[in-house]
Amino acid sequence: MVHITRVLLGGAIRPKYHFRRKWRLYVEKQKLGGPVIPPSLLEKGVPIVNAAVEQKSLEKNIEQFFDWKPDHPMFIEEPKDGPEHPRYKEIPCRMFKEDTKLFEGVEQAQLLTKTVVISDAPPQWGLQEQLVDALRFPDEDERVRRYVMQSVRWHPSEDKLPRRSLYYGYVAPWYYGISIARANDLICQNLLRLTEMSYSGNSQILKRHLVKDALVNVDYEPAQPDDFRIVLSCNSNFMLTTTELLPPFAAKGQAQLTSQAELPSIYPLKPALNLEETNLYDWDTSYPFTEDCTFGFPHTIIVHHNAPDEWTLAQKKAKAIVHSHATLAALARRMFGKDVKELPQPLSVQCILADRGKHFTFYAYQLNTLDMASPDGIKNLVWVDTDHQTVKTGPEDDPEIVITEKPYRLFQLADQMEGLMGYQMYKEKNSRPRYKIRLLDSYNPAVMKKFLTLYATQLNMTHSNSAQLKEPREPRAVAV
Amino acid sequence: MRPGPLFRRVVNRSCPTVISNRTFQSSSLRSGNQRTTVTPYYDGNDFVRDRSQLIPRSLYHQPEHWTDEPEYPEIVPPRKTRAFVNYERHKEAEKVAAMPTVKEKMAHFAFGPPLVNPLKVYIARQAKLDIRRWYQIFQPYEIEGFPVKYDALPFYKHITRTAVVADQLPADYYAYIEEAELNDIVDKVRQTVINAILAEGRYYSKNLDQIPVEERVVVVQAQNVIDALVRAVNLAVGKDFPHLREMQQDTDTRCAAFWKRGGFLHDAQLKRRIYDKASGELMLQYIEEDNIFRNFRHELPLPEVLPRESCVPSAATEQAEGRQVGYNPTIYGFRPEKSIPHWIPGHWFGDPCEFSTLSLDVPKAWTRQLSGQDEAQAFESLACNAIMASFGRIVAQAMYLGFTFLNELSYPIVTQSIMTNGRDWMFATYQANTIALWKPDEENPFNNMCWLTQPVKLFDRVEGSEVIGFNDEVLRLFIKQYLKAPVTSTNSNLRPYIEKTERSYWKNEHSQTPFYHRPTRRDGKPRQPFKPEI
């Protein structure tokens, strides 16, 4: 057995070593004899300057010659995570961030935000869904299929995907392709674009404004003196805003009924279990828009979930609930003052959790109170809309029917390449053979319908697209 | 006396097919859908005096080696001449045109003939080495869109063979929309755009701290304003113009194109490669990594601005524009880089929407380089960028359509480009009539055309909650370009050099196609038919 080495393959062998060796010989030679000054120059009286010495003196005095004060952020040293940091507080807090996974899922989120959960779509959505069918374009499915293929296959980005750890002892190569975050972003952008196109012609939607990366910060004083401070720092990847508040999802009587409902208990755990303890935080409430902004009322927020590790559905739900709550809490403090407890007027928002650009869940949140200290009294409300899978087992006479909750799945690829880390387009370097993404297996139009439904909130719907589309006014040129 | 034919047929041993008696002059570049079946063969071996010696003796008396009329071998022009370069190019053009798929065409130009020993490749695969390195034999000049040196407009015109019509867009081309209707749309859109400009300082974004203050204006504001503008037009008239819905939208995409350009004066590469010296031909690779913010594509092309026959360079225009330089690209700051030729018009191959209608570019170099320049210099830099972005995109998309720099376009391709930093906007309309630029200019009848405006300001400045000096003209120009519809149908074949033009990605249409890595059923029964899960 001959070992296949680079020598056999004729590659360059230790080029650095040879270069250094040659260079060392050259330098030694120079040292022995020294640089030879041509006698003709000496005769003419040309001044000889040692370039090395001159260079050093120039480098020392370089600040005299240049007024070079870089103000680019890359040149500014990051402050260390100590007391010198501008955001340092002596009292530590527990912070909810983008990647905080609440282990106890929905129950923990309920305790954090004092919320009662209803596992169903709000009644308004049911009414809107009936109207939405008239809006759908005949070629809508084809459009969305293309968006999916663009996000997993056709986009030419070369993001560096995280390494896959296949098994011990094998160093997996780097792959380049469409990262999960980018695929998620592409899908959401395109679905929103098609949604808005479906509603075009309605003059009310011109008041809506779309904002990217809207950051919200909310601070909560500890309920008991030995508790931690709690800070919710939530980033919504898209925030659709309007000029008016959304109408409440629950009637007044229904909201009052929540005072009878009991929050779940996760004793002996505390609700702030998974929140990270830190001294670096902002101890204030911030809302993305300034006070004089007229179009800053949230309509729908889209939260991306691109975490590389596995989350249960309940944990993802918890993430969406906290994001919706934080957005409204910041708005409520802006509108009704810092110390507001029970809100004079309920606030509401809709939320879409986009999980890797593939799985979607939909939420409607109504904020009734910010009185977090006591578990009693009126509570907040959230409607969680998920898909259901029905499985029949057992004999045909007496079947056992199991209904499992699962998110709306937008698509399934025919090829076996699943986008856990990202979508890899072609083999990079000496990689192992991998399945290429070529075909789309299944596609679920329910997701697009949900987008249309959520967009219809607060609109008077009068027009329809399913009828014969209007012909273009002029016959367009035909010859090419 | 043998009754058979009298003249011996010229036969090459390595080419058992019949050689046509057509001479080189008759086998010119084919045009349109016409397709030649017989290719003249020449193996490059001049040292065989009598080709009849190549015939085995046992076959010497067979009738297929004799003809009634003499057939002469094709006349190969002498080497080291311009004619020989032409001859080789035409042969290659026919070879590429006969390739049925785009992948083969791209591989032909990217990797060339198999120069690497297949045994070596096999061993390397076993050793898990990267063999792509061995294929990187080309050193094309890497051209950027934004020029790095001053006075580069003549160079960009030369490498793209473009005639510029400055300070205007073609009026007739955009006369499809009436003035009153345009004003209506502008009225609907205006407030949303003003809101977007005002929102710049009004909401706090997480990523904003990472961007320096100077670039924040360019990058963030430009992206917000573009997004708001496109969105507002979609909301206002999206339903009336169905092509808006039918278009695919690329976000933060990249572009790359490879082509050859003749007519350069002198180069170190040319010294080495003696055949290309005659035409002064260089390889160019255009690469745009992160400046393209939005790109809209449709299944059908935009209608042509001018008939192709009228886009002929005249002596007067050339004189007015000055001499087209053939200086080396290194003079303008571009260096040859080892790379594989590749073509990316904003998407990978497979997307059915292959005709780019409008692209919105946000050049990052805008603040870095344009800050110290006066208006004329700024216009020149942006004009270079607009020309290069449009031409590069068209070359790449033409490759996906089956046209290469050897197989000329059979119809003109039109695209539109916008250069903007959010405040200043520059509009361009580009019509590509030719991409076969390896020929000297005397032999190529067509010229590419580019219509350009001066940079127009969308607004002057923001004071408090007011936008001062808001200019509707920018909205008008943008709306005219964005709403320009492609043709509804075509009589001509859009992809004459490709056999299979259907692009399908939906599994239902592939039910008969076996999947390569798919596990088969153990019991030998056919696979279950596809059931959608909905």
Automatic annotation (TrEMBL), chain A:
Keywords, ordered alphabetically: Mitochondrion, Ribonucleoprotein, Ribosomal protein, Transit peptide
**Record bears the keyword Cell membrane:** no
Q: Which InterPro entries match?
A: mtLSU_mL37, Ribosomal_mL37/mL65
Where it sits in the cell: the answer is:
Mitochondrion
Which Gene Ontology molecular function entries are recorded, alphabetically?
structural constituent of ribosome
Q: Which family does it belong to?
A: Belongs to the mitochondrion-specific ribosomal protein mL37 family.
Pfam families recorded = PDCD9 (PF07147)
Superkingdom assignment:
Eukaryota
Biological process per Gene Ontology, one example term: translation
The protein here is known as Large ribosomal subunit protein mL37
Gene Ontology CC, one term: mitochondrion
- Please name the source species: Ramazzottius varieornatus
UniProtKB/TrEMBL annotation, chain B:
Compositional bias (Basic and acidic residues)? 521-534
Which organism encodes this protein?
Answer: Ramazzottius varieornatus
Per its record, what are the GO molecular function terms? structural constituent of ribosome
Keywords recorded for this protein, A-Z: Mitochondrion, Ribonucleoprotein, Ribosomal protein
Organism phylogeny? Eukaryota, Metazoa, Ecdysozoa, Tardigrada, Eutardigrada
Q: Where does it sit, as one GO cellular component term?
A: mitochondrial large ribosomal subunit
- Chain spans, region Disordered: 509-534
Tell me, what is an example of a GO biological process annotation in this record?
translation
Q: State the protein's name.
A: 28S ribosomal protein S30, mitochondrial
Localization in the cell: Mitochondrion
Q: What is its main location?
A: mitochondrion
